[in-house]
Amino acid sequence: MANVEIPPIGFGTSLLGSRTYEAILTALEVGYRHIDTAQTYDTEALIGKALRESGRSRKEVFITTKIADKNLAEGVFKPSLENSLAALGVDYVDLLLIHWPSHRDVVPMSDYMTALVDARERSVARMIGVSNFPISWLERAIAIVGPGQIVNNQVELHPYLQNRTLRAFCDKNGISVTAYMPLGKGKVLSDPVISDIAERHRTTSAIVTLAWLLQLGIIVIPASANRQHIEANLRASDLQLSGPEMAAMAALDRGERMIDPPKAPAWD
């Protein structure tokens, strides 16, 4: 993994809504120490409340949040980050990401990448990165901030969309990869290949999929409001897949992208 400081299993909150508070309390109770959120998820305040009431110190929990593309412009970026910190009830986040690049460069990349570096230099973000950046956009971002500054790229990644070219570029440039939607909106859970592997290991397809990603050195952030699933997902690192099983998972790639809004960049 390119950056060992980022806990490899995080807890996602993108679809939890009002269930976020209880889910975060459960996640922290069972052992998660990495929470992923974003300005657009409307979960920051609920996460902040759960953190305060969990009994966990700030240093125990790794927090990632993302600046929304509507907040990238000069004069908007910094206040939006201050609002996120206030909602979370923290002085800093561990990892600050650009959620989506500015569509058609309405906001110049130099503006928001410079603001991202400034957040780190002001110690309101320990590390910085991006999300939904294909190679061409990563190359531009690196040219602006310099090599070694971007530590993470969070992208859609699951057995049906394995993003090998992008992963190779990130690995070459010391950028860790976080897989969002690692279970492909649940579609991969009924895949017969994954089900067969799960049956052999007497586990679930979800755990097999997460274990496969972890074995590839990819950070995962599964989301759930179900206590049983929350606990089970955390145990994915205990499962070791064989070489043939990893190859079988690799063969499932079919380039099936499930998140592709009009504002998305041209993918690799």
Question: What's the quick description here?
Answer:
The protein has ten helices and eight strands. The chain has 268 residues and is α/β, with parallel strands linked by helices. It has a single domain (11-184, 217-236), classed as NADP-dependent oxidoreductase domain (TIM Barrel, Alpha-Beta Barrel), CATH 3.20.20.
Question: Please, could you describe this protein's structure?
Answer:
- The protein has 268 residues and is of the alpha/beta class.
- It has a single domain (11-184, 217-236), classed as NADP-dependent oxidoreductase domain (TIM Barrel).
- 39% of the residues lie in helices and 14% in strands.
- Strand 6 (150-156), helix 6 (164-172) and strand 7 form a beta-alpha-beta unit.
- The mean pLDDT is 96.
Oligomer: single chain
Q: How does CATH name the architecture?
A: Alpha-Beta Barrel
User: How many β-strands, per DSSP?
Assistant: 8
| Largest sheet report | 8 strands, parallel
Strand content of the residues, in percent? 5-15%
**Structural domains: how many:** 1
CATH class: Alpha Beta
Basic shape: globular
CATH homologous superfamily identity: NADP-dependent oxidoreductase domain
